[in-house]
From TrEMBL:
InterPro entries, per the entry: DNA_recomb/repair_RecN (IPR004604), P-loop_NTPase (IPR027417), RecF/RecN/SMC_N (IPR003395)
The species this protein was found in: Segniliparus rugosus (strain ATCC BAA-974 / DSM 45345 / CCUG 50838 / CIP 108380 / JCM 13579 / CDC 945)
Residues annotated as domain RecF/RecN/SMC N-terminal: 1-522
GO biological process: DNA recombination; DNA repair; SOS response
NCBIfam families assigned to the protein according to its UniProt record, in alphabetical order: recN (TIGR00634)
Keyword terms, alphabetized: ATP-binding, Coiled coil, DNA damage, DNA repair, Nucleotide-binding
Descriptive protein name: DNA repair protein RecN
């Protein structure tokens, strides 16, 4: 329920804190003081669209702040709860503060628990907690979609499971239909794609590249491009070490290895121990030099004797570059493309088989939808009987002259997101024959009473909801007004009810009475006339009811009549 409501710069209200409590609270006031702004404010914190024209003149923005007492986080949709948890909103608290701002430029912001949230999240958060009905909302009853939604709300859990299965199957049916259409319409295009993929796979398979081959090949080409320089350097080093010239085997001179051998012999034959110790080191150096000479000889032997090796590497590089240009940015990418192309080729290469497979899935889903459609129709027809019975029980006390609501459910034969049924609300006059659709046979006053009766029925079991009625009793008076007051009071025993009304018969049944009135002299800001909000005592309620009865607030007769009305309502409520 709502425990606090604060409004700033909204319409005629410059600043107001609205005292709220459980039960049935009524809001009244003279025309033009801004009664409806309270309902507008509640629509804003409920995530409704904002109208910049509602911002009070001279103000930069309007602000509406509401504190919701949560019966528990489970009342919220899982997706909403997860979003708010991730945003850092503590849903374990007993209440949550919601704030909505509306700038004069039309820009709007929403906050839950001090965290900024999208309007869609605010709307989803408030949906199970707040239900606002205005005097024009009765026109929604004329729409078939709204009538179906109301019937499904009444059916509750009995239809929730089958309807969820229907929606999943309906979405799958649409996806399969689109896939089948693509397969059938793009058969020629798929054939061309398959040919292109197969050609690419063939080219890559013929080249048979290795992972990273382009990089290793580039390094090898750089080495072979300097072949003469490499041979010259290796040859010179080998000659110095070994004294052996591969190009002139007989004309070599002593090399470093031979010299080190002579050094070792000289040192080993010396009488000085220190020199003999150095002979071992000379022998070690000779071994290292000999090994280095062998390695250089092997290197020289491995070098190509002509440029054919380089040309072969360059040809291979050109082959790989052609593949890279066609399919990727490097050889590894080419290999990935080949793997993906093979998988894609297998998917689209089925041709007729793929079409047949999707068609079979589509037919199976269609059969599932037909079965679910029959189940939904049966559930709705049973719920329709219960709904019209419950609504008509409420209408009996609202001076409908014996007229009754008839709820019809007929299969349309057309699949939609909510099934394949057409739901129609009709009004059956007392003693008449066929019911007449609401759009053709119901007056504004009758629509108001039907909507109220419907909401009274649908509110059962939704104790966490705050029900707001903004002058939904327009076009109603007399005994019907008393009936509305009685039913709103009864509804207030189960959930919080707020009603903006001009009917004293309705106001008399409230548990709390709030008056919106012109602010005292000097309270108005630059925005012109201002209004204030005040909770009335019982004596003040009598004065207000007298004013509402016939503008007789200042007469004893008027007050006596009002006191009688209030006492009768109090007695009625027990």
């Amino acid at each position: 329920m709502l425990s606090e409501l604060r409004i700033e710069n909204l319409g005629a209200i410059a600043k107001a804190e609205v005292p709220l409590q459980g039960g049935f609270t009524v809001l009244t006031g003279e025309t033009g003081v801004g009664k409806t702004m309270l309902a507008v404010g509640l629509r804003l914190v409920g995530g409704g669209r904002g109208d910049a024209a509602r911002v009070r003149g001279g103000a930069e923005r309007a602000v509406v702040e509401a504190r919701f007492e949560l019966p528990g986080p489970d009342v919220l949709d899982d997706e909403v709860r997860e979003f708010l948890d991730s945003a850092g909103v503590d849903l374990d608290d007993e209440d949550v503060l919601v704030l909505r701002t509306l700038g004069k430029d039309g820009r709007s912001k929403a906050f839950i628990g001090g965290r900024a949230v999208p309007l869609g999240t605010l709307s989803a958060f408030a949906d199970p907690l707040l239900n606002v009905h205005g005097q024009h909302d009765q026109l929604r009853l004329l729409k078939s979609g709204e009538q179906l939604a109301a019937l499904d709300r009444f059916a509750g859990e009995k239809i929730a499971g089958p309807l969820a299965k229907w929606r999943a199957a309906y979405a799958r049916f649409g996806q399969l239909g689109a896939e089948l259409a693509e397969l059938q319409s793009n058969e020629e295009g798929r054939a061309a794609e398959a040919e292109r993929l197969a050609e690419g796979i063939r080219r890559i398979a013929e080249a048979d590249p290795e992972p990273g081959e382009d990089e290793s090949l580039a390094a090898e080409i750089r080495r072979l491009s300097d072949l003469d320089d490499l041979r010259e350097r290796a040859h010179a080093a080998h000659l110095l070490l070994t004294g052996e010239d591969p190009e002139n085997p007989e004309g070599g001179a002593a090399g470093a290895a031979s010299a080190l051998g002579q050094v070792g012999t000289i040192l080993a034959s010396a009488e000085d121990p220190r020199l003999r110790e150095l002979a071992d080191r000379a022998a070690e150096a000779g071994t290292l030099v000999a090994e280095l000479g062998l390695d250089l000889g092997a290197y020289l032997g491995d070098l190509p004797s002509d440029s054919s090796a380089l040309e072969a590497k360059l040809d291979r590089q050109a082959q790989l570059k052609a593949l890279v240009r066609a399919y990727a940015t490097d050889v590894d990418g080419v290999l990935r493309w080949a793997a993906e192309a093979q998988a894609r080729l297998e998917r689209i290469g089925g041709g007729t088989e793929a079409v047949a497979k999707v068609q079979a899935e589509l037919d199976a889903t269609k059969a599932e939808l037909d079965q679910l459609a029959g189940k939904l129709t049966a559930i709705r027809r049973k719920a329709a009987d219960g709904l019209q019975k419950a609504v008509n029980q409420e209408l009996a006390g609202l001076s409908m002259g014996g007229a009754a609501l008839a709820v019809g459910v007929e299969p349309s034969g057309k699949h939609g997101p909510n099934g394949a049924d057409e739901v129609g609300f009709a009004l059956k006059a007392a003693g008449s024959g066929e019911p007449i659709a609401l759009a053709k046979g119901a007056s504004g006053g009758e629509l108001s009473r039907i909507m109220l009766a419907l909401e009274l029925v649908l509110a059962r079991g939704r104790e966490q909801v705050t029900m707001v009625f903004d002058e939904v009793d327009s076009g109603v008076g007399g005994r019907a007004a008393v009936g509305i007051g009685q039913r709103l009071a009864r509804l207030g025993r189960h959930c919080q009810v707020l009603a903006v009304t001009h009917l004293p018969q309705v106001a008399a049944y409230a548990d709390a009475h709030i008056r919106i009135e012109p602010a005292e002299q000097g309270a108005a800001a630059s925005g012109g006339k201002a209004s204030q909000v005040r909770q009335l005592s019982r004596e003040e309620r009598v004065v207000e009811l007298a004013r509402m009865l016939a503008g007789m607030a200042e007469t004893e007769t008027g007050r006596a009549h009002a006191d009688e009305l209030l006492s009768k309502a109090e007695q009625d409520k027990g």
